[in-house]
Design goal:
It is built from 17 helices and 35 strands. The radius of gyration is 25 Å and the shape is globular. The mean pLDDT is 95. Bound molecules: calcium ion (CA). The site of calcium ion has 7 residues, from loops. Calcium ion binds next to loops.
């Protein structure tokens, strides 16, 4: 039945346009399941997200405010451009090596009251949305400062959250916060008792009841912008807003917001959407929408590193103990040793040259720790003041290259300001000139950096293994935290956790205190569950003789780079099972944070009819290994002990 004539319809359209309601600005994913709808509501741009006809985000604000012009109110929609993106690329150091990104791209053109132009570009692939703002020159202005973003996320009522509070600036150890180390709360209400003044770090995971899951993050942040985070959920509007860094970060030095050249762009805001957690675990959106910023100066090598500091602590920062850890790397056939803080004062550069020569004679390469400061904090650990300025940094990196060092772990950064993003990028870019790989600690979330910077390996940005040594609460929550990472933090970026601790007590003597509460099966599983192209593992020399030989054999050969990663099963905070493939070999790993043993029937079609090695814990929580076969159905039943884990290895 035809109710309206076409001329009446177009009259309504014109009326809606004049009213500022841009009707039906939509863009869908290639498979049509994910739909973004954009509109202008009383001069304010908004968007909504549907997946399989279910609301994942209600009308949520868009726009930004610059020091020259306001793009969050008084906005008019003036048209659209559509295109498609189909891109293949390879990446050796993330969860997947051969990537194919297919998206529909919608560019919405807007104009504000001063006739200044803003585009919002949406790229919509089957389970991911990436969008960013693009600003044109404004009259004589070829530069501006983006002071504030209106971008927000309004989830349906009843949504629960998996969020990690942003740490207050200039707090914590030696005023080194924020460093993304406050941990995640699971299944919390959007508006609850825990009002978080500083908001929450990216990524944030949201459970939209029975309708699915949404993971929020950002990517493509380099020296030309600041890192952003989520504000607390507004009690009035129910919206989480994108916020820029607290001005108190970095000892108050450097601005919040971003100084950009015009025409200019913001980083990409990313939204990963699924009915299950599969698209969350498997997302590659942080890498799909960015490009390498320079060529690698050499072919970088990834792999496993011994690391004395994690269990033997500061007392091990001496020549004799580092020899023991080089010999441990030799025994394990690992590629690297990481020599941590205080090597400069306790060993010194001359003896360090000898140590590096010794390591290299045994085919072990050396990674060295550096303090990032500078003026950002009070961390006394040296070497200090070598990374914060270009002149000192290049001098130091020349020495490092000449001494045969292959990479650095740089620690204690001052926050997310553009000022600090410049420091991250400057360290990465200079390090590439001197053939050094870079791992960041006490650091922000990497935002697409694995692809943008060829010599970037990974960042901590997690409540990491060091806190297992320092805190009973963190030891109690070890299994809980581990079951979160594949679904949240590690889903969007490499995560340098520094795990696999096989000592029963997390001390050098391996007795009396700091009892480990997870099983050996659990520890082996984390080598697969946690992804970082260079893994600093927590094995100690005594482990060569005091743990079962099959555990050591497993650790000798476990890969650190992957061709494919699959979600198998799990619920963040309760249990997790994922599979990773290197070459033709699959590794399936799981961990259980529940209070009881967990029996699962895993669907592993890629392994049907195959023989594998199982590493698991028995009912007494003692690790064992045996050969198993997967039936022709591809189903496999496994029991994971409480605070336990397993690995199936092809
Ligand atoms: Ca840390």
């Amino acid at each position: 039945m035809k109710i309206f004539s076409s001329s009446l319809l177009s009259a309504i359209s014109i009326f809606l346009l004049l009213k500022g309601y841009a009707q039906d600005i939509k863009v869908s994913s290639p498979n049509k399941q994910l739909v973004v709808t954009i509109a202008v509501d009383e001069g304010r741009p908004v968007y909504a997200v549907n997946y399989n006809n279910k609301i994942m985000l209600e009308n949520s604000p868009l726009g930004l405010t610059t020091n020259e012009s306001n793009f969050s109110a008084g906005i008019k929609y003036i048209g659209r451009e559509d295109t498609t993106i189909d891109k293949n690329y390879t990446q050796a150091k993330i969860k997947k090596s051969q990537l194919h990104y297919v998206a529909n791209q919608l560019t919405c053109n807007f104009e504000n009251a001063q006739q200044h132009k803003m585009k919002i570009v949406f790229r919509v692939s089957n389970n991911d949305i990436a969008f960013r703002y693009e600003l044109a020159t404004m009259g004589e202005r070829f530069s501006c400062v983006v002071e504030k973003e209106a971008t927000g996320y309004k989830f349906p009522a009843g949504t629960t959250t998996f969020l990690s509070p942003m740490m207050a600036p200039m707090t914590g150890f030696a005023r080194t916060a924020p460093s993304y180390e406050s941990g995640y709360e699971a299944d919390a209400p959007m508006i609850g008792n825990n009002f978080r003044k500083e908001g929450f770090v990216f990524p944030g995971l949201f459970h939209i009841g029975n309708n699915g899951w949404v993971l929020l993050s950002e990517t493509g942040v380099n020296s030309l912008y600041c890192g952003a985070h989520l504000g607390d959920c507004s009690k009035e509007t129910g919206v989480y807003t994108v916020e820029y860094p607290n001005t108190k970060q970095n000892n108050g030095f450097g601005s919040s917001g971003a100084a950009i050249s015009l025409p200019g762009v913001t980083p990409w805001r990313t939204i990963t959407v699924g009915e299950t957690l599969k698209p969350i675990v498997e997302t590659t959106i942080p890498f799909d929408v960015v490009e390498p910023l320079y060529e690698p100066s050499r072919s970088y090598k990834f792999g496993k590193a011994t690391w004395s500091w994690i269990v033997w602590q500061d007392a091990s920062m001496n020549y004799a103990d580092q020899i023991k850890y080089i010999d441990l790397a030799v025994a394990l056939k690992w590629e690297y040793i990481l020599i941590d803080a205080f090597w400069d004062s306790n060993i010194g550069k001359d003896k360090m040259k000898e140590l590096i020569k010794y390591a290299n004679s045994k085919k072990v390469d050396v990674l060295l720790w550096y303090n990032s400061n500078g003026a950002a904090n009070d961390a006394p650990q040296g070497p200090r003041n070598k990374m914060a300025s270009s002149v000192e940094r290049k001098k130091e990196m020349k020495w490092l290259r000449d001494a045969g060092v292959k990479g650095l772990k740089v620690d204690f950064f001052g926050g997310d300001k553009q000022e600090t993003m410049r420091l991250y990028e400057d360290i990465l870019s200079d390090a590439n000139d001197y053939g050094l790989i870079i791992d960041f600690h006490g650091a922000t979330l990497p935002r697409g950096w694995e692809r943008m910077y060829p010599n970037f390996v990974g960042s901590e940005a997690v409540l990491a293994s060091e806190m297992l040594i320092f805190s009973q609460g963190v030891r109690d929550a070890e299994a809980f935290n581990a079951t979160l990472h594949p679904f949240i933090r590690n889903a969007v970026g490499s995560m340098e956790f520094g795990g696999v601790l096989l000592n029963k007590f997390l001390t050098k003597s391996n007795q009396n205190r700091n009892k480990r509460l997870t099983t050996d099966g659990f520890q082996l599983a984390t080598a697969i569950l946690f992804q970082n192209a260079v893994q600093m593992f927590g094995l100690t020399p005594n482990n060569l003789t005091d743990v079962p030989a099959f555990e050591i054999d497993f650790m000798k050969t476990v890969p650190t780079t992957w061709d494919e990663t699959l979600y198998i099963d799990g619920y963040p905070g309760k249990y997790t099972v994922i599979a990773r493939r290197q070459g033709s070999k699959w590794y399936v790993a799981g961990a259980n944070a529940g209070k009881e043993p967990l029996k699962l029937t895993l669907k592993l079609p890629m392994l049907s009819g195959k023989k594998l090695s199982l590493y698991n814990d028995d009912a007494a929580k003692l690790a064992y290994s045996k050969e198993v076969s997967i039936g022709s159905t591809g189903e496999y039943e496994v029991t994971i002990q409480q605070s336990g884990g397993f690995v199936l290895k092809q």
